[in-house]
Write a structure and sequence with these properties.
alpha/beta; elongated; two-stranded antiparallel sheet
């Protein structure tokens, strides 16, 4: 029976060699017995890339088996859904697979980690995958960060994106706006103006800094038509606000009166507050 090398650096970085296996048995399985991973974090597949892979498979066959686990009806794909789709389009009747005895928990982790290693996920897919792991496995953000090899702020910043309205998440998923735009939009206090602000991004091509400035003006209720000349002190505060926003990954406002001032740092959940407090302690 044919043998294949391990699953590559992506998984070996997270699972011991005894789990990944230096050599695995490969078997041929009918495409009709395979079904997609229900925990597949990637929702958007590049059809052009699948088409190119289809042509390669037609010429050279499948060079790397897909990873599956046995289910009640056939097999669930753990890794290799793109290869499965391309092979199906190429008209293959069977596909080489490696069968792993994964629990649902391990299946979710493996699929997420492999996609993260290959940078295949857009920010929304990544955020949804993190949230699903937290919900299903009852993990804290700190525990998840350790499991997937990311920092806690990285996890928190992605999960916060899920608070954006669905139309905005779709723009983010499709690459029309960036994660930086999404994080800035979270700081908009007047949520009724969200669509108007998003329209400005797409119509005027606002970059993240320009968007942050627009949102700051809206939050301060400053009319762009009657805006007063910015003083040197205000410029200083805005620079510090920008620095603190990047540092804490959330909206920060510095307000000063004649005798005193205050810094307001927004948080969206107990986990988010804990993350910010840890950063302050450091």
């Amino acid at each position: 029976m044919a043998l294949v090398k391990g699953l590559g650096k992506g998984l070996n970085a997270f699972f011991p060699p005894s789990e990944a296996g230096e050599e695995e048995q490969v078997r041929e399985v009918s495409v009709k017995e395979l079904r997609p991973n229900p925990y597949q974090p990637r929702k958007v597949f590049d059809q052009k890339a699948i088409g190119e892979l289809k042509e390669s498979i037609q010429e050279h066959g499948i060079l790397q088996p897909i990873v599956v686990r046995k289910s009640i009806k056939g097999y669930e794909i753990v890794l290799g859904e793109r290869r499965f789709r391309a092979a199906t389009e190429a008209g293959l009747k069977t596909i080489p697979v490696i069968v792993k005895d994964y629990s649902e928990q391990k299946m979710m982790e493996v699929a997420l980690i492999e996609n993260l290693q290959r940078e295949d996920l857009n920010p929304v897919e990544e955020a949804q995958a993190y949230q699903k792991l937290i919900d299903h496995l009852k993990l804290t953000q700190e525990e998840l960060a350790s499991r997937v090899g990311k920092s806690r702020p990285h996890i928190a910043n992605h999960i916060r994106l899920l608070q954006l309205p669905k139309p905005v998440l779709e723009l983010l998923s499709n690459g029309i706006i960036t994660m930086g735009h999404g994080r800035a939009l979270l700081g908009l206090k007047k949520k009724a103006k969200m669509q108007q602000v998003v329209q400005r991004i797409t119509d005027d091509g606002l970059n993240v800094r320009q968007l942050e400035k627009l949102i700051q003006d809206i939050n301060m209720n400053v009319s762009r038509g009657t805006k007063k000349k910015t003083t040197q002190t205000n410029v200083f505060f805005k620079e510090k606000e920008s620095f603190l926003r990047d540092r804490f990954g959330t909206s920060v406002s510095i307000k000063k009166s004649k005798r005193k001032g205050k810094i307001e740092i927004e948080f969206f959940s107990e986990d988010d507050l804990e993350r910010i407090l840890e950063l302050l302690e450091k």
